UniProtKB/TrEMBL annotation:
Calcineurin-like phosphoesterase domain segment(s): 146-312
Transmembrane helix keyword on record: yes
Transmembrane segments: 21-39, 60-82, 102-123
Transmembrane helix found in the keyword field: yes
Protein species of origin: Alloyangia sp. H15
Protein's name in the database: Metallophosphoesterase
Keyword field: Membrane, Transmembrane, Transmembrane helix
GO terms assigned for molecular function: hydrolase activity
Length: 386
């Protein structure tokens, strides 16, 4: 279905943009074929590598493909607006009044420029975002406790080892008490990603680094990656929890498997299993890659629910579409039946659509405070990055 839709979009762009160009027929055919190939790059990636989520070509090529793919989508959207305007004008005048060819070319140039800007925004280091959450019955020893939340790193040819090394240095400079990663660390099988993930072994926090799986872990050999994360010094949490103690008080850090796990014959998310044996009076910080189960988790007594998966919608205007598939949760902080749900825009982005316009990536630092204490309180979902 996806390939069919992209084929239609590619054909539409080729007809609207290439048709009016004053170039020889053979030139129009070449440009049209290039547009169609870019539109179907995910299908071609699947044919070449057996998986549409991992384009194993030089980074410059991956960037160029993303610019081209983004330009096709944006140019198509701009042409739809132009066509609607042309139709409305013709109906008002009761006479067919096509737009001059320059409008189509201008839309294509604008689409390409926006795509280049979007890819440039996507591949840069994430902005740091600082938040404070007030937690009921937070033990005194955890007042001011700092948690760095990473998610959707999607390490790949696009987000490769130099990106990871710079990110790890920034995280460690914050000297957090805890580092948590809520899934989708990788795009690619272990044999091609080993060097890219290696710097994650240098992540350092007083109480360790914890990770839960996202859907992309299951696309590339879940068992091999789960073992690798442990070898890198991370503590995996898949329907499991850990107990962190400070001054006689405790904080529970739990993690769930991803909703896609059952499709691969692996355990589905199970909050009861994750919290089995956990102290009932301890606040619970939950890693759950997709935010769709937030209401269920709130009913189960979770205090802080950290997710990613949505990438924040990636482009301004897409939030309503993304919300339809994520129970209305797309980006930022939500109050869900007394629980803090935080949906990160993501530390990086899937390399198959690396485009950000108005929705920046983020490195999130969260400070825990007792409810009613002297802390900063809970900021709105639109908290400003620092």
């Amino acid at each position: 279905m996806f390939a069919t839709v992209m084929g239609i979009i590619g054909a539409y762009v080729a007809l609207r943009v290439v048709g009016p160009l004053g170039i020889p027929l053979w030139g129009k055919l070449l440009v049209s074929v290039a547009i169609l190939l870019l539109a179907e790059n995910h299908l071609l990636t699947k044919w070449a590598y057996g998986n549409m989520f991992s384009l194993e070509l030089p980074r410059a090529v991956v960037i160029a493909v993303n610019v081209g793919f983004g330009a096709i989508l944006l140019t198509a959207a701009l042409h739809v607006l132009l066509d609607l305007f042309m139709l409305a004008r013709s109906l008002l005048l009761w006479q067919w009044r096509p737009l001059a060819p320059g409008w189509s070319l201008g839309a294509a140039v604008l689409g390409l420029a926006l795509a280049a800007l979007g890819v440039a925004n996507a591949v840069r280091q994430p902005a740091q975002k600082d938040l404070a959450f007030e937690i009921a019955d937070l033990p005194e020893g955890f007042d001011g406790y700092s948690v760095v939340h990473l998610t959707d790193l999607h390490l790949s040819r696009l987000f490769h080892r130099p990106f990871v090394e710079a990110l790890v240095a920034r995280v460690n400079a914050l000297e957090p008490d805890l580092i948590v990663i809520s899934g989708d660390l990788i795009d690619g099988f272990l044999d091609v990603r080993r060097e890219d993930v290696a710097p994650l072994a240098d992540l350092a926090a007083r109480d360790g680094v914890y990770v839960s799986p996202g859907n992309h872990e299951y696309y590339f050999g879940y068992e091999s990656w789960w073992t690798t994360y442990q070898q890198l010094g991370m503590r995996p949490l898949a329907n499991a929890h850990a107990r962190i103690e400070r001054d006689g008080g405790a904080l529970v850090v739990a993690g769930l498997t991803d909703l896609s796990a059952a499709r691969f014959g692996l355990p589905a998310p199970d909050i009861d299993a994750a919290l089995a044996g956990a102290p009932e009076d301890a606040p619970v910080l939950l890693l759950n890659h997709q935010p769709r189960q937030a209401r269920e988790m709130a009913a189960r007594g979770v205090d802080v629910h950290l997710s990613g998966h949505t990438h924040g919608g990636m482009v301004v205007g897409l939030a309503s579409l993304v919300a339809r598939y994520n129970e209305g949760f797309v980006s930022g902080l939500y109050a869900v039946d007394g629980m803090h749900l935080y949906v990160s825009n993501g530390t990086a982005l899937w390399p198959g659509f690396a485009l950000r316009l108005g929705v920046p990536s983020e490195l999130t630092r969260i400070i825990l405070r007792p409810r009613g204490g002297a802390g900063q309180g809970v900021p709105d979902a639109g908290a400003v990055a620092s």
